[in-house]
Amino acid sequence: MHMAKLSDAERADKLTTLFKFMSLPAFRRKFAEASELVKEALQIDVDEKRAHDLVWRKRGTLLTRIRQVLRDIDSDVSAIIESREEPEKGKIAAFRVTR
């Protein structure tokens, strides 16, 4: 109102009009609706974080299993390479299966 260079009387009229507007049921309904929408938006964030946590946990579990399988493969290959015994022809080395 200051920037509009209103007189004191005009400012008082604007304040009265604004107070009347803010006292209307429609204003209170819109304000309540805005508050509800904020709560819904915040719940979306909570749900999204929960979903991300689940995905990250599943991915972490899979990566841990892959790392263990790779360690097992490395151990099996090392055992074959470092062994002084000649494997029997046609015999396949037994590999560990991790599940």
Shape: rod-shaped
- Roughly how many Å apart are the termini? 72 Å
Query: Which structural class best describes the helix and strand composition?
Result: mainly alpha
N-to-C order of helices and strands? HH
The number of helices is: 2
Count of all domains: 1
- What proportion strand? under 5%
- What proportion of the residues is helical, as a percent range? over 70%
Major sheet characteristics:
none
Q: How would you characterize this protein structure?
A:
By secondary structure, the protein is mainly alpha-helical. It has one domain (8-82). The chain has helices at residues 8-23, 25-82. The model has no long low-confidence stretch (mean pLDDT 87).
Salient structural properties:
mainly alpha, rod-shaped
Ordered list of secondary-structure elements with their pairings:
Layout: H1 8-23, H2 25-82
In short:
This protein has two helices and no strands. It has helices at 8-23, 25-82.
